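Q: I have two molecules that I believe assemble together. Could you output structure tokens for the complex as a whole instead of separate predictions?
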Amino acid sequence: DQQVKQNSPSLSVQEGRISILNCDYTNSMFDYFLWYKKYPAEGPTFLISISSIKDKNEDGRFTVFLNKSAKHLSLHIVPSQPGDSAVYFCAARKTSGTYKYIFGTGTRLKVLA
Amino acid sequence: NAGVMQNPRHLVRRRGQEARLRCSPMKGHSHVYWYRQLPEEGLKFMVYLQKENIIDESGMPKERFSAEFPKEGPSILRIQQVVRGDSAAYFCASSPRGSDEKLFFGSGTQLSVL
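A: Yes, here they are, computed for all two components at once.
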């Protein structure tokens, strides 16, 4: 029962171009979403978040878009840099209950110099 | 370093042995989460604990796995009678409050079962 899905296991993008990572969820009760970045042999690090009361949140080169009706969110990175090469996870939770985050399976982004 | 500390970083066990994974949350954090990442898979929620309480263990296998977060000391994830399928990276995360917006992760423990 994968409630949070990242259907693209990998993505390659040229340096300087836009990277778009997608995430779909099935539970309409989810109302808070995060993106994490993970390098090999390290723990995930927080990137950006969005609440369901918004449809966009921006932080520097990173922007997250939320489409509640489609139960879809996306992370845009522009311009992409080689240091952005990592695995990106989206995560979702409900703001009631036990606050546990459900993570997607990740997308491996490779930014080509 | 005030981050989430996990030890050991690498743990090798033979089938049938016990594995104990430790997690010290960030200072001031009283909520701990354990996640498991199997090879080529995402992060799977295992258990959510507060000090001396298990809040949600819906992701824990019913047998051989247990977790605790005592009043003093680190959180412990214990796996009894390990099998090869337990080989994975185990990540701990913490937050000051359960309702907080993000989790802070440790670097993980890579468990290898021979």
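A: One point stands out. Chain B has no helices and eleven strands.
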